[in-house]
Design brief:
The chain is mostly helical and 438 residues long. The protein is built from 18 helices and no strands.
Length: 438
């Protein structure tokens, strides 16, 4: 009897070694050149995760305790986050598993562990690893209600309230630790843009403490260029929803207004946010006047499609802030060469914009494009009370403007005051008389 028990134990140990060896080989196949082999290896490993969770190799410490094959699952996630090759296709296949709450929770923990391992003692991490990690992290989406945490990949008889995986609060903590662990490292510039594109909508609402993103967003806002433009969305959420105090915010926003904003990829988002930030009626008149004057000065060299956005925005700002209408109705406006406005001043409070006038809009009334000159001419009339929506103009491109002009068709233009009669014109015309003399 004792001999048979010893043989059974040895057989179990041998089978466990074979099982672990099989799992290691399947993880290696996640890097196979053939995508079909990768896909089959992933589905087999996930089936092992499900079966090992339902029939754990180790005995539970107490009845009803939650056991999950963490080590096997961490190995799977590390295989997906390859530092050598692009795993986007395989990660898209893995995304379907994230619909299960238990897998999503352990994916967040395993991803944070993989980032810590990859960066521990390695100053230079391959870009492929960061790209794969961002693809995985951006695929994680949390439920909005606590009662929604009920879908488990590893089958359980009845979930217990003692399990962390059953509480949305714990999911939020894991989500926050995952993103903070990722963003504290030096990432490629292209990844910063991708993160900032989804930060306000897909990351901040699910964090346990959104204010922990202040350092990341303020440092991104200080970078300049497109990264600063994209950081505006996240800062807007923190300022308006989480009472973030940022004394230099409007000064830095003022500094972002340069000729390049009309040509960047994120122009529509930037001007949408500028419109939001300047919508408060509590802003001082000198600040709004500085933005109006800076926009008007930049409009002198802007393309027509940008002008059709900027000019209504300027008029809306004058509607919201009547104290700034002195820029239009100044009876003795300064000459162009004596404009007190200082375009090189970084501080809008010192730009002296409120002492100036909007002569730039008068100059734009002579613009070669008729729609631009018409939009600039609105300033000559009394501004209507309702604002003009700039939403349809945010995505306007030069191609669309050109196509719109083509659809109008040619206008009939008279070439003579008196219509011509006959081949040589009228009988009393000079051309007819000369021909008769000859």
């Amino acid at each position: 009897m004792a001999g048979s028990q010893g043989a059974t134990r040895k057989y179990k140990v041998w089978m466990r070694h074979r099982y672990h060896s099989c799992c290691r080989r399947l993880v290696e196949l996640l890097a196979h050149p053939s995508f079909q082999v990768k896909e089959l290896a992933l589905s087999t490993l996930m089936k092992f995760v499900q079966l090992e969770g339902a029939h754990p190799l180790e005995k539970p410490r107490w009845e009803g305790s939650y056991l999950f094959p963490r080590e096997l699952f961490k190995a799977v996630v590390r295989g997906l986050l390859s530092p050598e090759e692009d795993q986007h296709l395989l990660l898209s296949q893995f995304r379907e598993y994230l619909d299960h709450d238990d897998l999503r929770y352990h994916t967040m923990q395993a991803a944070a562990d993989a980032v810590a391992r990859a960066t521990d003692g390695h100053p230079e991490v391959p870009p492929a690893f960061w790209d794969n990690t961002f693809t995985l992290l951006s695929s994680v989406s949390l439920p909005h209600r606590d009662c929604a945490v009920s879908s488990f990949y590893v089958k359980r008889t009845e979930p217990s309230d003692k399990w962390k995986v059953a509480h949305l609060k714990e999911h939020r903590k894991a989500f926050q630790a995952m993103w903070l662990g990722f963003l504290k490292h030096k990432l490629p510039p292209s990844l910063y843009k991708k993160v900032l594109m989804i930060l306000h909508d897909s990351i901040l609402p699910h964090l346990a403490q959104p204010t922990l993103m202040i350092d990341f967003l303020t440092s991104a806002y200080d970078v300049g260029g497109a990264i600063s433009l994209l950081a505006l969305n996240g800062l807007f959420v923190l300022i308006h929803q989480h009472n973030l105090e940022y004394p230099d915010f409007y000064r830095k926003l003022y500094g972002l207004l340069d000729p390049s904003v009309f040509h960047v990829k994120y122009r529509a988002r930037f001007f949408h946010l500028v419109d939001l930030f300047l919508s408060s009626s509590h802003l001082p008149a000198y600040l709004v006047a500085a933005f109006v004057k800076r926009l008007a000065r930049l409009a002198l060299t802007a393309p027509p499609e940008a002008l059709l956005l900027v000019l209504p925005l300027i008029c809306n700002l004058l509607r919201r802030h009547p104290a700034c209408r002195v820029l239009v109705h100044r009876p003795h406006s300064p000459e162009l060469d004596a404009d007190p406005y200082d375009p090189g001043e970084e501080d809008p409070a010192k730009s002296r914009a409120l002492e100036s006038s909007l002569w730039e809009l008068q100059a734009l009334q002579q613009h070669y494009h008729p729609e631009v000159s018409k939009a600039a001419g609105v300033i000559n009339q009394a501004l209507s009370a309702p604002e003009v929506s700039i939403a349809p103009l945010l995505e306007l491109t030069a191609f669309e403007l050109f196509e719109r002009d083509l659809r109008k068709g040619p206008a009939s233009v008279p070439l003579e005051f008196v219509p011509a009669q006959g081949l040589l014109g009228r009988q009393d015309s000079l051309c007819t008389q000369l021909f008769t003399l000859c």
